[in-house]
Each structure stands twice: as structure tokens, then as C-alpha cells.
Amino acid sequence: MDTKRINVFILTGFLGAGKTTVLNNLLQQYARENNMVIENEFGAASVDGGLVNVRQDRVFELNNGCICCSLGEELYSVLREIAQMPTPPENVFIEASGLADPGALASVFVMETVSEYFVVKSVIGIVDAVLFEDSLVEVPEAGRQLAIADLIVLNKEAMVAKDYTHSLVQRIKRINPLSVVYPTNYGNISTELLAQHFTEAPQLLTYKETQSHEHSDVKSILLDFKEVVFDLGRLRSILTVSLFLHYHQIYRIKGYVHINGSKRLHLVQSVGQQLSISPVHRNEVQDPFLVVIGKGLTRKGIEKLFSKGFDHEAMVK
Ligand SMILES: Nc1nc2c(ncn2[C@@H]2O[C@H](COP(=O)(O)OP(=O)(O)OP(=O)(O)O)[C@@H](O)[C@H]2O)c(=O)[nH]1
Q1: What are the Cα distances from residue 154, in Å, to 39, 56, 87?
Q2: pLDDT tens-digit profile of 81-123?
Q3: Which one, of 194, 197, 191, 195, lies nearest residue 178 by Cα?
Q4: Is 98 in the pocket of ligand 1 (CB under 6 A)?
Q5: If you write DSSP's letter for every residue of the chain in order, what string do you get?
Q6: What pLDDT does 242 receive?
Q7: Which of 35, 151, 222, 235 is the most exposed place for a label (fewest CB within 10 A)?
Q8: Ligand 1 pocket, 20 CB below 6 A?
Q9: Would you name any one GO CC term (predicted)?
């Protein structure tokens, strides 16, 4: 099925971080493929649409709003139009406005009517090495953008000292330990690097325990579920309710768990309010554990939440 679905690459990052620069780089590398671009800018007039190096009839512009909220319907109809093209593209690149909440944006792709045609291959977060620390303190979306990204491009590296770059990488990894952080200049990333870190690739092996960030209370909590079996229905319902109520606090959940009655591990993912729990087909998946990234979370609270989904009668097979 995947071979027929359209690959989606979501580019997020704060204003001026280098999203269009990364996009143009990727378009150049994917030039042999059939690409479309969805541009979203906050103001009524589009600047970026004209800056993207792809034929103008391959660019959809969603302006005058933020793609994650007011433009949800418009995005949906653009995606429908793309899916119904006589020759649909192989790749769709979405450059979200610098203020977008990528969790809400990525949620659109969890909807069945959309995921039938599209598969999110990577959420790429672009960070300005010079301005990152300030934006993290001042703008809550900056933390969310990091939390949801698979690959974080630490752009404009040459503009800061080497030691500082190193400390930024550590700091970003503390916020999103699941991500790969890649320092570079002028958005210079390769498609090979991108392919190594596709959303569905199991990346959890490299996970390291993290603490709360000093200047922001975005943090990640690791839960070890080796010895635990969940009841699928119970887990789904407690997470659905929690994401509905605490969507502004829980940015992302990702990991693998045992489910009663199944020999396969299940991948649990949440983006925004959307949740998906599905059996894993690959053998290379590691031990079951989950990572929860969010703001103001406490380990005790999160452990209590998940414990409501346990099936205490079932044994790990
Ligand atoms: N010095 C330096 N400038 C860069 C680098 N990467 C991008 N720029 C410049 O930074 C400016 C902003 O880059 P864009 O790619 O337009 O950033 P953006 O995130 O798309 O910007 P918005 O769409 O306005 O949010 C441009 O003038 C780029 O040429 C870099 O590594 N070093």
C-alpha cells in the first residue's frame, strides 16, 4: 500500500529559521521525482510561494491563517485535490508558517480519509542556532515544533561558536530525545540523511533519559513497559480522553507496548489530539517503552495515567 501513497514532508521551524532554504535544497535533490509544495504563511500575501524552486503550478498557497488551525478545512481540500490528480505527485512538501503547531498539522494525516492517500515520511524541524534559545523562552510553539520533529536541522551553525553548537544539540536532545539533531548551514541536508530518520523508523534505541529543561518546562518522560501488558480498548480510551483534555500539555507520545492477545508489539503514537495504535510488522523493533513529551508533566501523573490501561491478568509472551 505504501508504494502508492504520496510521501509527505512537513517542514516546521520558527520565523526565518531557514525552512524555505531547506525546502529548496530538498526539491533540488528530489528533482527527478514528481513534487508538489504547500506553502503556508501567516499574512494575506505570500512571499514564500515565489521563493520556492519548483514550477509555480506545483505550489499550493494557503495564506491568511495558520495551517494548523483556521486553515484545517482548506488544507483538507487541497489534499483531496492533490490525491485526485490524474497523475498524483510522489512527494508533497508542506512548509508550515513559523507559528504553526506541527502537532495539529500532523494530526490531519492520521485521519483515515487522508492516510489512505498520504503518508508522513518526516517532520523536519528547522532551528536557527542564533535565535533558538530566545525563541524557546518566548514562544511556546517553538517547544512544540521541536517535540514533534523526527529530524532537527540546527541551521546557521557557522554563526555561533562550536562549543555553543554542541550545547544546543544537547539541549534539543533533552527536549526531544527521539530526534536526530543535525547542525548545518544554509539548510544543507541530504535526502540520505532524511531517509535514515523517516517517521516510522524505529529510533528509540538511542533514547537517553532526560531532565526538565532549565528555561522551559517542556520535558520528556521515559516509561519502561517491558513487564507490562496493556488492554487495547482501555489504553485507547484513556489516551483519547487525556489527549482531548490535556492536548495543550501532552505534545507527543511515541513508543511500543505489549497488547493482550497479540504476539506483536504495538506502536503507539500521538500527534496533537490524534492517536494511533497499530501492530508493528518489522522484527527490528526494540524493547517496549514509551516516551511522552510535553509541558509541565510529572512522572507520577503520567505513570498513573498509563496504569489505568494495564491488563493485570495478562502475561508478557
Ligand atoms: N547566514 C546564514 N543565513 C542563512 C542560513 N540559512 C538561511 N539563511 C538566510 O536566512 C534567511 C531566512 O531563510 P528562509 O529559508 O527564508 O527562512 P524561513 O524559515 O523560510 O522564513 P519564514 O518563511 O519567513 O519563516 C534568508 O535570507 C536565508 O538566505 C545560514 O545557514 N546562514
Answers
A1: 21, 29, 35
A2: 999 999 999 999 999 876 666 766 777 787 788 889 998 888 8
A3: 197
A4: yes
A5: -TTTSEEEEEEEESTTSSHHHHHHHHHHHTTTS-EEEEEE-SSSS-SHHHHSSS-GGGEEEE-SS-TTTTTHHHHHHHHHHHHTSSS--SEEEEE--TT--HHHHHHGGGSHHHHTTEEEEEEEEEEETTTHHHHHHH-HHHHHHHHH-SEEEEE-GGGS-HHHHHHHHHHHHHH-TTSEEEE-STT---HHHHHHT-TTS--GGG-------SSS-EEEEEEE-TT-EE-HHHHHHHHHHHHHHHTTTEEEEEEEEEETT-SS-EEEEEETTEEEEEE---S---S-EEEEEEES--HHHHHHHHHTTB-TT----
A6: 92
A7: 222
A8: yes
A9: cytoplasm
Task: Give the residue carrying C-alpha cell 553548537.
Answer: 165
Q: Is the pLDDT of residue 128 over 70?
A: yes
- CB of 49 closer than 6 angstroms to any ligand 1 atom: no
Q: Which ligand 1 atom sits closest to the C-alpha of 98?
A: 25
How far does the centroid of ligand 1 lie from the alpha carbon of residue 142, in Å? Answer: 16
Q: What phi-psi label fits residue 296: left (phi over 0), alpha (psi between -120 and 50 degrees) or beta? A: left
Q: Are 90 and 6 in contact (CB under 8 A)?
A: yes
Which domains occur in the chain, in start order? 6-201 (3.40.50.300), 218-307 (3.30.1220.10)
Of 123, 134, 108, the C-alpha closest to 19 is: 123
Rounded CA separation 222/225 (Å)? 10
pLDDT of 212 reads 39
Give 70's pLDDT tier (boundaries 50, 70, 90).
Answer: low
